[in-house]
Amino acid sequence: MTADGKTAGFMALPGGEEDRREVFARSLADVLRLLGIGVAAEPGPGPEPADGLTWERRARAALRKVWRDGVVLSEEAFDALVKAAVHDPNPSFNRQFVEPALNAFGHRRVQAALLAYLRTGTDPERAGAARAWYWSALTLEMPRVRAEHPAPADEGTKVLKEWREAALREFVRNEHLDVRRCILPLLRLRKSSYPAELHDLVDEAVATARSHPDEYIRHRVEHQVGD
Fold first, then answer.
1. Which pLDDT score, from 0 to 100, does residue 150 have?
2. Stretch among 88-92, 127-131, 166-170 having the lowest mean pLDDT
3. Residue-wise DSSP of the chain
4. Mind listing the pLDDT tens digit for each residue in 186-199?
């Protein structure tokens, strides 16, 4: 799905080159701890415990139940949810952390946190922030997930503009493959989406993508130019 809600026949986004499983497991454990959820690893078939993926599936299932039943999230939970979303290696399942954060803390705050990761995080975190950003405009449909100290309703318009400009700059300047793969689907590659001083950068982004050695990037950009 595009930023405008349209579907297109894009190649699937390739997996990242870094193995983020271990850091994600720690982030997921932090979320469970803050929510008071205990998830024990199932015993394996032999003397060794089951692998981490078994525990992860159980943990995700426990979280789904919490979001359905309702919960009041503390301030500390905000950072833990955003961190888990950024480090989640699965670009579909990371919604499980973004959506409750949006419902409890608002679009602007979540988007501002993802923007901070894009600007100052490690390259894997920048890529993860881009994957998480995909879900950051979701309609609020978890009324039973609330913040301990609710903030006034907000709009993320200003943050959206800042994200677009920061993502464009990051795509051009950062040669990290996973960063470019994850940012590209979110980029608007028409000059009318940016101030005049960034129009040359749009041309540079298109040229970079079209000449890139990565097949996914070359394929994807042709679907986005002029959209």
1. 82
2. 88-92
3. --TTS----PPPPPPPSS--HHHHHHHHHHHHHHHT---PPPB-SSSSBPPHHHHHHHHHHHHHHHHHH-EEE-HHHHHHHHHHHHH-S-TTTTHHHHHHHHHHH-HHHHHHHHHHHHHHS-HHHHHHHHHHHTTTT-----TTEEESSPPPP---HHHHHHHHHHHHHHHHH---HHHHHHHGGG---SGGGS-GGGHHHHHHHHHHHHT-S-HHHHHHHHHHTT-
4. 999 999 999 999 99
